[in-house]
Task: inverse folding
């Protein structure tokens, strides 16, 4: 079965108990393959270990572009004059083609993930351009683009992938340029400008999304 880490960080251990060594800390949102028990023996990519079951929840499979985004977790800006080659690659998915990782790159990251999944993106470095892309949906679903308010100017914004509910009024967003890296963070729904889906849904799916 598929699960997701719900704690801010969850220790992956070599055995089923706290007396076993920690292999690594898994960030919030990490997807796992597991069979439920008190302790879970899980697979994360090509690694296996054990985690405490109270900090994971069952989840559906990621759409292709969200799975691609999840593999980028941890990519970060390089301090100083040098730049992250990976973030520059994200920039090249937009018409701006910025050459520094300090240039805001949340939209570039979203475009890159979509293009890697063979989905046409806005190819724009402006987060709010996603409000004119794809189709609007009334309620978020895993992988949809969430466009959020940012700053005080009308053109400012942030775009991230919806990665689940953090509470009644908060969502998890998996995105780029979040604390200068690709990570999962929480956002208040009060700041949401729109939810966008990359392809037109079937009539039955559209009815469900609009309900």
Result:
């Amino acid at each position: 079965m598929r699960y997701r880490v719900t704690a801010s960080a969850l220790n992956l251990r070599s055995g089923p108990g706290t007396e076993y060594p920690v292999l690594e800390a898994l960030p919030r949102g990490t997807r796992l393959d597991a069979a439920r028990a008190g302790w879970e023996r899980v697979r994360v990519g090509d690694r296996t270990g054990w985690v405490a079951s109270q900090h994971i929840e069952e989840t559906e499979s990621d759409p292709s572009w969200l799975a691609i985004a999840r593999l980028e977790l941890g990519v970060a800006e390089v301090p100083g004059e040098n730049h992250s080659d990976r973030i520059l690659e994200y920039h090249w998915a937009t018409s701006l083609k910025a050459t520094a990782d300090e240039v805001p790159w949340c939209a570039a990251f979203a475009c890159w993930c979509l293009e890697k999944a063979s989905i046409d993106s806005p190819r724009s470095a402006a987060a709010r351009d996603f409000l004119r892309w794809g189709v609007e949906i009334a309620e978020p679903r895993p992988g949809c683009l969430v466009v959020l308010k940012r700053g005080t100017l009308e053109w400012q914004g942030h775009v991230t992938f919806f990665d689940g509910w953090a509470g009644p009024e908060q969502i998890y967003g998996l995105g780029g340029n979040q604390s200068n890296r690709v990570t999962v963070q929480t956002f208040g729904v009060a700041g949401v400008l729109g939810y966008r889906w990359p392809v037109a849904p079937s009539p039955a799916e559209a009815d469900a999304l609009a309900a």
About this structure: The helical segments are 64-71, 85-91, 106-116, 203-210.
